[in-house]
């Protein structure tokens, strides 16, 4: 399985992560199917942003509302691991709903994509740059 993303969108996410060495950054992935068309940076409202992320619910709600009125679908989200590897943490696994959402995780200057296919579980997706 794979997801496609434009190199420009990918570079922007990596730059956002690199610019925040102390706190996890996060945002929404918009597009359709397996294609990430845009990444929307959102505030991380977690109480401990150095070790966790929580997408600003206002931004999430607004994105879903736009999708319902014809905008791009919310197909997943991204976040960074400022001092870790771009693989799902136990905390991430606890939030995996098995809903098919794409999780892009940024760490160590690279991005890896995961899909939540079961409660608490992920499979890795190859990232195809277009
Ligand atoms: Zn994480």
Automatic annotation (TrEMBL):
GO terms for molecular function: metalloexopeptidase activity; zinc ion binding. This is Proteasome lid subunit RPN8/RPN11. SMART domains: JAB_MPN. One of its GO terms (biological process) is proteolysis. Keywords: Hydrolase, Metal-binding, Metalloprotease, Protease, Proteasome, Zinc. It comes from the Bacteria. GO terms for cellular component: proteasome complex. Gene3D superfamilies: Cytidine Deaminase, domain 2. It comes from Sphingomonas aurantiaca. Residues 3-130 form the MPN domain.
